[in-house]
Amino acid sequence: MTNCIFCGIISGEIPSHKIYEDSNVVAFLDINPVKDGHTLIVPK
């Protein structure tokens, strides 16, 4: 995939505030949160 923002976050090319990561998923705070703690969970 080209220009995949989530791929860039998972690989570390795009900075993020990761709050959880394992072999299957990564969770990080949204850059434009609706509420405090708005978290995105993305499969790897």
Structural features:
44 residues; 3-stranded antiparallel sheet
Mean pLDDT: 94
User: How many DSSP-defined strands?
Assistant: 3
Query: Portion of residues in helices?
Result: 10-25%
Low-confidence runs (pLDDT<50, min 5 residues)? none
**Secondary structure category:** alpha+beta
Order of helices and strands: HEEE
The strand order across the widest sheet is 1-2-3
Number of helices: 1
Largest beta sheet, briefly? 3 strands, antiparallel
First-to-last CA distance: 13 Å
Strand content: 25-35%
Radius of gyration: 10 Å
Shape: globular
**How many discrete structural domains?**
1
Explained architecture:
The chain has 44 residues and is of the alpha+beta class. It has one domain (5-43). It contains one helix and three strands, in the order αβββ. It has one helix at residues 5-11; strands at residues 18-21, 25-29, 39-43. Strands 1-2-3 form a three-stranded antiparallel β-sheet, with no helix packed on it. β1 and β2 form a beta hairpin. It is globular and about 30 Å long. The two termini are 13 Å apart. The model has no long low-confidence stretch (mean pLDDT 94).
